[in-house]
Amino acid sequence: MERPLVRYLIDTNIWIEATANVGPAVALLEKAAHAEWAGYSAITRLEAFGYPGLTPVEEQALSDVMGQYREVAVTSVVIVEAIKMRKSRKILIPDALIAATAVVMRSVLVTRNEEDFRGLVGVSIENPFR
To answer: Is residue 1 domain-resident?
Structure first.
């Protein structure tokens, strides 16, 4: 089976909802497993595993599912792209870094939080909940 020529950078909310077995998030990860490439920003790991109140069981579930995908480091190239984004409009630093990672990796940013990223040049968004 040939892999579809699509690349996905998966945002924090999708991982959390997938580990809670929420249908659209689970379906997206199944789709991503067959993509040309799929992964997440190191910032996403920080957000997900740094969530207050995360139980050991939830942490293990996140680790199990995220471990099947590639983590992308915050490199100088990502930071330069994030700086451009922050100069173009108000955006939180973690969101800018995640969006910049999607641009650098030439990936569709998969998120439920479309408003956080709307209007950023070069950022293509997919919301599996729509």
So the answer is: no
